[in-house]
Fold each of these.
Amino acid sequence: MNLEFTQEEQDFRDEVRAFLKEKLPARLSDKVRQGKRLTKQDMEEWHAILNEKGWLAPHWPEQYGGTNWSVMQKFIFETETAMAHAPRIVPFGLSMLAPVLIKYGSEEQRQHYLPRILDGTDWWCQGYSEPGAGSDLASLKTSAVREGDHYIVNGQKTWTTLGQYADWIFCLVRTDSSGKKQEGISFLLIDMDTPGIEVRPIKLLDGDAEVNEVFFTDVKVPVENLVGEENKGWTYAKFLLTYERTNIAGIGASMAAIERLKHIARTTKKNGVLLADDPLFAQRLARLEIDLENMKTTNLRVLDAAGKGGVPVAESSMLKIRGTEIRQEIGALMRRAAGRYAQPFVSESMEEGYNGTPVGPEWVGPVSSQYFNNRKLSIFGGSNEVQREIITKAILEL
Amino acid sequence: MDFAIGEDRQMLSDTMSRFLAKNFDWEKRLKVIETDTGFDRDLWNELAELGVLGALFSEDVGGFGGTGFDIGTVFGEVGRAIATGPFLETLMAGRLLAAAGETDALESVIGGEKIVTFAHQPAHDAETGEESDVTASGSGEDWTLTGTKGVVGYIGAADLIVVTADDKAFLVEAGGEGVTVSDYKMVDGGAGGELHLSGTPAKLLAGVTAEDIAAAEAAGIVALSWEGVAIMDQLREQTLEYMRTRKQFGIPIGKFQALQHRMATLALEIEQARSASINAAAYFDKPERDRFSAAAKYTLGHVGNLAAEEAIQIHGGIGMTWELPLSHYAKRMVMLGHVLGDEDEHLSRYIALMQAA
């Protein structure tokens, strides 16, 4: 056993660091570090920089633009970019749809859609959840009825993240209601400009609107936009969700956040005592750091096993649960560190170039908003309770 | 990066596992823990012949292992069988014998001819309510020790005792002048005792420093972490099996969501503890040793208690019985937290290391 990076892995890490130092614009990393709102243009800018380098889609096969990196290289890349406060890569096209197209789509679909994901032509969003189908996703009702060369789609999707920017949506739709609910679902690609689609923003508890409702009224979708076979969509959907979960632990983001939290704890006094020296605060921080350090090794073990051909079903759910719990606890400690200054809500201070007089310590602006926004982490991608079901199912074999 | 245990260690692990399964089954263990010494000397000698003790030490001092992962491999098997015997004492005392170049004494320990124990932690003083420790006086080759050490593992069976005092280490012959032992059984099946020294002549283990003692403690924590994770695995497997077969309200209790979620959380925590034990072994000979050692012992205590308590709770009444092996695993698991510092002490230590950084 050896937990050290090999020389090759160290060289790779140095290469990633050099690239980030040269190409990651300070304007963007500053915004990420300070928790300011990223615009569509910000996200597209970083997407284009990575695409130019050829590092945008590490997990794709090389023939479609992947990097042929080992699992360890992908881990290094993810943690280094997060530690450098790079903007997150919008995952819907790159990490969710693309693996499905590569595994289950037609060659025409791959040739058409994959290059457009890479060069940023198409912004994708995810049409999964519905008002009556959250954790119980297979209960979805949005219907697609075949009429000649088209499907006619009617229904409603919800929690569609960044749908307001999207050119396309990949949707789970019901094409058969006669049998088991999992067996009548199909996977459909829909142009957001098609008549009959309406997007309405949902204002969330932090005051922002990153998610939307999407309504479909007699939307005509060409049959060639079906991925794989009709009524087999549930298989593709589950494949996509597994993909989503292995990257959901967010080790790099947590490592970056905990460094920032420790810096704040060492420089912020409450009642005359540095937070780092406050026994209760120090204890929560230490537990958090140990948990993260343990999880980093757990994650590496899972990657090692996956690299050797294993299918870590229970383990990826464990990573999702603990990864999100850690991120939420970091947010809770940031809020705790802010003390009374967690209360002021100066929304404009979260915009780039805000010049107003800061209220409280310079870092407190987005703290409460992030804490509340982070409630989503244990809900989306399959709630943490659903993950526990998956774990027990895998280990109990009952 | 590589998480494979390696061929040699796998062989050692298989050998030890087969040997213990054959020679230390449940009936045997129940008999052994009723004896005064708390372990079987013949079995101990056979384990020594198999090379189990040699794996704890490096080649230059007569062993053939000695890395964090070698220690972990041996103690993983100790945990799986909840074997009793002075494994931890041999590891820790043996390292100090090695540091002092006492190769003859160490050889007799590795070969099983002599039993060594490690008298390291202070005793409780009933008069003052405080901890009281052994002090050393003397110089050169002429030293005596006075005072008491508390809860010294397997002291009743020991031929040699390595005693720490004033950041030094000494070798004391059992049964020698000024050595009194009051021994007892332990909650988890082994044995221990209080060691009283009164002007006891002792041999200074020359060259042993406070750092050597700290390294021995770190080795002990690697050992306990791997032993603990192996016990957690047993607790988990036995509890899962019970959830599959035990029926209430007409269905296996594993169908109940309240139990499923508790089990899922426990399984997750056990993986975290496994990672902590791997970290402790990997950083055992690196500058970050103490941070990962403290993190591992904290994690072991925290998850170990959870594993023991949940396993008993999910079993219900039967989990409370002496008859069920599970209860013995649970006891050993919880007691590991009382060796070399509990989770709170190591969390405090971790915080102090962070604050000093």
Amino acid sequence: MAKTWHEWEKPLLDLEEGIQKLRDLVPKAPPDKAAQLEKQIEEFEKKRDTFLRVKYGRLGPWERTLVARADNRPYTLDYVRAIVTDWVELHGDRRYGDDKAMIAGLGKIDGISCVIVGQQKGRDLKQRQFRNFGMAKPEGYRKAIRMFEMADRFGLPVISFIDTPAADPGVDSESRGISEAIAAGMSSLFGVGVPTIAVIIGEGGSGGAIGIGACNRVLMLENSIYSVIPPEGCAAILWREPTAGDKAASALKLTAQHALDLGLIDEIIPESFGGAHRNPAETAKNVEEAVVRHLRELMVYDRDTLRTDRYAKFRAMGVFTADEAFTL
Amino acid sequence: MQVKSDAFLRCSKCRKVLFSKEFERNLRVCGSCGHHHRISADERIRITFDEGTFQELDRGLRSCDPLEFPDYREKLEKGAKATGRHDSVIRGTAMIEGRPVSAAVADFAFMGGSMGSVAGEKIARTIELAIERRIPAVIFTATGGARMQEGLLSLMQMAKTAAACRKASDEGVPFVCVFTDPTMAGVLASYASLADVILAEPGALVGFAGARVSAQAGVGRVPDNFQTSEYNFEHGMIDAVVQRKDLRSTLARVVDHLSANL
């Protein structure tokens, strides 16, 4: 079992690196040699495409977990840059501080002014630490709540980008009431009379995700995951072996398809061939199309309908039987 | 709690040997160190509400293992054997010092009091009944958090119960929550933290990330009383830490005040 996305995609990455090296040789080579190189490149590219098709054609829950966590996968601000115009980032929860793991701001999507929030991960080690690995603290959720309330005041739709392994579990967070902050995030989202849309773009990590995810519409990218607990945590608790992440990922049914089958999300947004990281622009276009479509659908409703619709949606979630002649 | 014989047992916290009868009379609080040992939901109902007033509802709701999660059915059966119920939350109506309430009590002995579809549904119904009848909702938590065996469905119970709490708030219907040992993770991060008034038993484990998950995430040294009722009280997350013997009267007073204008 591969533990990281790098390990899992290594043959592919090697192939791509080789292709790039050949490409670099082309301009320096004499014409006849260059033609030969071009042919070689073409062959390798064909090989890569077949490899991609096979590898990405049958992604299991664990492989999707790895892809959802890939360190070159587009993050929240990448989508903001790609689909949002007139962007103004806003900071701070007005109570304690500004959480870099949770971004927030105002921007237009397809000409519609929106409030946008989302967890932000970092790409290199320094950025990752700066963004706390996309794990928001109470001030992050309270910043989001401030945004939800502002959106409600000024009739702006809310778009929530979800990409977090979990809310921050450290002592800081606990001392400032991370649980209350997450609960209050949901409560705030259930109160607003504006359209709300959540898009899970990478990891939908349990409470950390639902704290900004209780929206009128919930969309998931094809290779994103949405789970009550990280598979490693599940394995650590159930079997006391944190390395059994693959087994737990299967048992937890954390893929977009499973979530859709259970009726817990509204739509799966397709990613570019071979994952969102291979063509971020194309994936962003798909995200934009889906968000705008749902936004336009929701914008015809009045405040009360949006609230009742949201209540009914989450109220209906749960699978159980009512055994009136119980035997116990 | 280790049973030595019928007449004696040993406190698992301070290791002192206690008289069984006295221990029961103390509502399962150690007379020596004051540790509040866990009690069953039925026992909680007995010591909290006016005698004979608790009317159970939805006793027939049960999980049907929607994810076909490994060993889940066995765990459900084990929980049923331990508690005589189909799931971790018992709900119904009751009176407390003559005031009607919509009540729910979790039993830790049923799969660690975890919240799956059934527990979430019962909590939502508890709050909705309170709204319908305009009476306070009173909920006792005892839980490790969301139930992993129902995957994303369990996560959605957080949203579902939070939605119900929001509705109660908007409708001006009070909700009082009592944290007992333990009150963790998905339950603490949803309806439990949305109560108008939060009481907690002394020494209860109250926190967001469980020890094994924290270790996974590399959380280092923690304060001595980390994730206890007292720690949460110090940080403004709990209204009062109340001894078990005083809980009924405190709860009755809170319910009485909050019912004044219903």
